[in-house]
Structures are given as C-alpha cells and as structure tokens.
Write a structure and sequence with these properties.
This protein has 174 residues and is an alpha+beta fold. 29% of the residues lie in helices and 32% in strands. A hairpin with a 2-residue loop joins β6 and β7. The protein is globular and about 40 Å long.
Length: 174
C-alpha cells in the first residue's frame, strides 16, 4: 500500500494512505443528495475574513534550539568538560564579544562536530577537530579580518552546515 507523509501544522508527520477506494452506496446517495440541494453560498464579510486571517497568522511559539559551547576570554570561563547551553543568538553574541587577546578561545558543539576559535596574539585559529583522522581542519586568519569570518563560520555551523564542510579549512595532523 502506498503512503504519503503530510504535516499536521504542529511539526508532526502523519501517514495517509494513497490507496484508491470504491465509493460505497451510501456515499453515492449522499453525493446525489448534495448535488440536488445546493445551498446558497454565503459571501464572506470583512469581519469574518479578518478573523480568519488573524487566526491563520497567529504565531506558534517554538522553543529556541540550543547548542553547547565553551569559552575563555577573561569574562567568560566555561570549561570544555562542562559546556554551557545557549541559543544561537547567545552564542553569536559571545563570539562577537570575544576579544583578540592571546589565549582567548570559544568552541561551539553542533550535531556535526565542534568548531573552535583560538587567539594566538596576531592571528586567530579556526579549528575543527577530526579525531578519527588524528588531526583537525584548520585555518589561520589575521586578527583584523577575523570578525566577519568567525561570524560567517559560526552562523553556518549553527544553521546546520557540517563543520567539516566549512570553506578553506586544511587538514593538519595532531
């Protein structure tokens, strides 16, 4: 039997059968009755149209997706062993506030892996650990051009781009 999946508007998926069925005699009689007695069509009023559109446009509250992160920059001290939970907006704010001081770092744990930013004084290291290959994907960027780059990388990773597919990263052995 063939099935199709349809959403119920609340994020759940419902399976509906696509099998064709023969109409029953009672269904045929009902169809004949409704064809004979056509009710007068009611014109929608401005009030009913507004009420319907207001109902249709009601915002459905959604829970913000959270991610784990760790950081150290003088004001933040979150261990990688006990990462904090934060929304995308909170993590992007923390990345934007990350100062270019030697030793400062921030890491984001997303479903596809970990994305880390580490300041080495004059440069930032973008690092994606790949322990299965005994190394990590890396990119080094000058401090003055890092602001835009780290935001782009973080936004991509938080949006679901696999961290190993982020651009311009080169593999380095541990």
């Amino acid at each position: 039997m063939l099935y199709r999946q349809i959403g119920d508007g609340a994020g759940r998926v419902i399976r509906a059968s696509m099998a064709k069925t023969k109409p029953t005699k009672s269904a045929a009689k009902l169809k004949a009755k409704t064809a004979k007695a056509k009710p007068a069509t009611k014109k929608p009023t401005a009030k009913s149209a507004t009420a319907k559109s207001a109902t249709a446009n009601k915002a459905v509250p959604t829970k913000a997706k959270t991610f784990s992160y760790f950081a150290s920059d003088g004001s933040l001290n979150i261990s990688a062993d006990k990462p904090a939970q934060g929304t995308e907006a909170q993590i992007l704010d923390a990345i934007q506030d990350l100062r270019a001081v030697r030793g400062n770092f921030l890491g984001i744990i997303v479903p596809s892996g970990t994305l880390q930013f580490y300041c080495d004084g004059d440069e930032w290291l973008i690092d994606v650990p790949v322990p299965a290959k005994g190394g990590s994907l890396q990119r080094t960027i000058a401090v003055d051009s890092m602001e835009t780059t780290r935001m782009e990388y973080a936004e991509s990773a938080l949006a679901g781009t696999p961290v190993i597919e982020l651009p311009k990263l080169k593999f380095k052995k541990f």
